[in-house]
Amino acid sequence: MRLTIEVWRQDNPEVEGHFETHLVEGAQEEMSLLELIDYLNDQLVSEGREPIAYDSDCREGICGTCGITVNDDAHGPVKNTPSCRQHLRSFKDGAVLRLEPFRSGAFPVIRDLVVDRSGMDRVLQAGGYISVDAGTAADADSMQIGHGRAEKALDFAACIGCGACISACPNGAANLFAGSLLNHLSTLPQGSTERSKRARAVIAELDESFGPCSVYGECAKVCPAGIPLSAIAAVNRERARALIRTGKDD
């Protein structure tokens, strides 16, 4: 395949970035977007030029670190699929691919396609835990949970924290991300003890670092884990519950 790559280059957060154009020949349609960047980087290094910086880890659609924007789509043209699982067969020979970092005020660019996602980390630090006795594990059936309830919790726990929902949202809201966290932990009895405390902490960080949700729905369209749009309802529900229970232990 012959492709024209327009890629965002930015040395550090303090300088202005720009798009740099490269012609790539010999790319194979089974290549993923990350393999395409690797292929281009080999070309740049052989020419004595700086390779393109980008994040990646598992390359199996699990970790969420590889997210980039492709032709204005978070992750790429295939819906609900992370960047590392997007392949060149989705593009025509001779296509132009515009690669840039996730765009959001909460995601300052560190270098090239690498962004600072620490705002999401702070949300997790605020409430992505439960306080339990770390001693001997209890028997598996000591706290019975219905199958439907367990499956619901697992569905919301599937969020990989990639940030595509925030990048796709016109407001830069993180309600799908925070909602999946709050839904997951409030569904299970282990998370009920600190439910209100968790909600207050998570929502305070959400309001501080991200924009308001206007229910555009763009977040659910790009989520690689398929978190449903209904997850965002947990933010206002848990906010209201926490206000009512102010002063309570949980």
Automatic annotation (TrEMBL):
It is an enzyme of class 1 (oxidoreductase). Pfam families: Fer2_3 (PF13085), Fer4_7 (PF12838). Its cofactor is [4Fe-4S] cluster; [2Fe-2S] cluster; [3Fe-4S] cluster. Keywords: 2Fe-2S, 3Fe-4S, 4Fe-4S, Iron, Iron-sulfur, Metal-binding, Oxidoreductase, Tricarboxylic acid cycle. Residues 150-179 form the 4Fe-4S ferredoxin-type domain. One of its GO terms (molecular function) is electron transfer activity. GO terms for biological process: respiratory electron transport chain; tricarboxylic acid cycle. Its EC number is 1.3.5.1. InterPro entries: 2Fe-2S_ferredoxin-like_sf, 2Fe2S_fd_BS, 4Fe4S_Fe-S-bd, 4Fe4S_Fe_S_CS, Beta-grasp_dom_sf, Helical_ferredxn, SDH/FRD_Iron-Sulfur, Succ_DH/fum_Rdtase_Fe-S. Belongs to the succinate dehydrogenase/fumarate reductase iron-sulfur protein family. NCBIfam families: dhsB (TIGR00384), PRK07570.1 (NF005746). This is succinate dehydrogenase. It comes from Rothia terrae.
